[in-house]
Amino acid sequence: MAVDAAQLTSLQPVPATAADRRLPGDLAVWVFILAELLVFGVFFLSYAFTRAHHVAEFNSEQLTLNRAAGAWNTVLLLTASYCVYRAVAAARAGARSRIDLWLLAALACGAGFVVVKLGEYAAKLAAGISLSTSTFYMFYLSLTFFHFMHVLLGIVVLGVLWLRARAGAYGPANLNGLESGASYWHMVDLVWIVLFPLVYLLR
Amino acid sequence: MQFKSQAAAKPYFVAAIGLFVGQILFGLIMGLQYVVGDFLFPAIPFNVARMVHTNLLIVWLLFGFMGGAYYLVPEESETELYSPKLARAMFWVFLVAGALTILSYLAMPYARLAELSGNNIVQTMGREFLEQPLPTKAGIVVVALAFLFNITMTVLRGRKTAISSILLLGLWGLAIFFLFSFYNPSNLVLDKYYWWWVVHLWVEGVWELILGALLAFVLIKVTGVDREVIEKWLYVIITLTLITGIVGTGHHYYWIGTPEYWQWWGSVFSALEPIPFFAMTVFAFNMVNRRRREHPNRAATLWALGTGVMSFLGAGIWGFLHTLAPVNYYTHGTQITAAHGHMAFYGAYVMVVLTIISYAMPILRGRPCNSPRAQVVEMWSFWLMTISMVFITLFLTAAGILQVWLQRVSDTPLPFMVVQEKIGLFYWMREWTGVVFLVGLVVYVASFFIKGDERPA
Questions:
Q1: Can you give the pTM of this predicted structure?
Q2: Second label for B421, Cα 20 to 30 Å away, from A131, A202, B43, B290?
């Protein structure tokens, strides 16, 4: 299929130039993101150290987790991150009409994550699993739930960005809000990319 | 003073300082009772002295917060206070109710007061820090509601700023969480569980918002740095506070009969509670370094910087010292806690109230700042009180480490009272440092009476 060259370039995301060494988004948001990463980091380390003392228990209980759901959620979050990236790229290129569409797609993926996760929680709840069931489940529920809360907040952030994008708030000269929200979403994604293998897969 | 009604703050500040003196006197009485057990017995038993020491602290800080709000909100909102009359009336209600409460504690036996005040209708006595007879507690709610109404109406009527919004959020939170002090379940676990919703969510939650707002306000005034910059910092600080502080409540749930996962949640989240305090320190110094004007009130700037440093040390570092569950397993309820409590309350809340008083009081008295001589005396009181508080904290920490070792860690653990006698030396040193603190406080009060040319030389 022949593609018009102009059409092709318009589809190309516009990367930040190498000379463009500024921080994407607001410094305040980055302080916030680093604090969040620190909380998760401490939690991940706690998990790793505790697991080292209870390898057999952790390995056997890990098998009861729904890996397929986890994999689907990984796909959904990565796709959402890609959409957010395209929204920022569209804003950088001044393609205003496409910003809100990409954000809407990201929102849909985020909502998909929430649905899959709720299904997973419902199954665990029905099996009578709680925070006090075992150390492994304490970690599984705590880690995934704290992350889940961040996905919800991320969806709220994307929702606000979407509304503002529809109002035409973002363009090459006005990226701060969009980049800040996008950075936050990528953080949520990044945490999951560590969390999923750590809790669901690593044996 | 930009708005006439800001004058409503003045009696609140005066009362706050008066009660501060009372708090320190009772602190010294109680400190002496640690080593001379029957000092002033039976007139002032230890439990009453302790209750008065801690409750006066809370009450005078509340006076300070209210005064701070009455001063700050009209200026931020760029409008007169909704009702200066209501503010004045509530001041007297609060003061008289507070005085009557303390007098009744000192005048009659505890059980008799409980009986007279209707403790059998709704139990409000017998809970550390939240100990008030029923009429006092109800009175606090009335005063708080009237105060919030007054402040909220003022904010709604005028300019909305980040500082006034965050202050308002903190003050509403303060009132809402206080309601849990009326809930007193007979199950001891539940009792303690919700008790912390007041105590912890106050000092490691909503009070930090009030602290941040007051500090930001004074920093804008004394440094002249752009409001935008200061507000951005404020947002970051309160977000960090809420992320770490709310679930950080878990560090009180380790050994009270709550599920084990609190040991993880409490440890992880509260381990990060020093971060917002560190941010506050960086914030204060950063803003002062970027100042665009030399404000003549140097004492206020000193208090603001002191708040940044001492709140980080007291709340951040000394809190972290015993916040991890495996450490707290040994240190729970020892003098380590007392060390942290002293420096955290002084560094965060006492100092921020003294900061706003230091900035606002000269203006309320009709001059931009005090005379250089008065400021020098005030700065002397800053160093006397701050350094003696550092030593009080160090001595209590030493006492705490010894106590943990002798009573809980060693191969031949000793009984509580035996250990208390062995660490008596540290209690004596704490008491004498406390006397230095009182001297600092007297110097502080004296600085208000020093006249002189207000223009800096």
A1: 0.90
A2: B43
